[in-house]
Amino acid sequence: MKKCPFCETENEDNVNECIFCGGELSIEGAFVQTEEDNDGSLYSVLMPPNKYKGVIKDVKKFLKIGTGEAKNCCELGQIDGLSKAEAETLAVKLRSGFFPTRAVKTSLVAEYKKGLAKDKSWEVKLLYGEQNPAVIEFFTHYFDLDMPTAKDHLYFCMYDGDGTVYATDCKAEADDLALKLRALGAEVSVTEGEAIE
Question: pTM for the full model?
Answer without folding.
Answer: 0.68
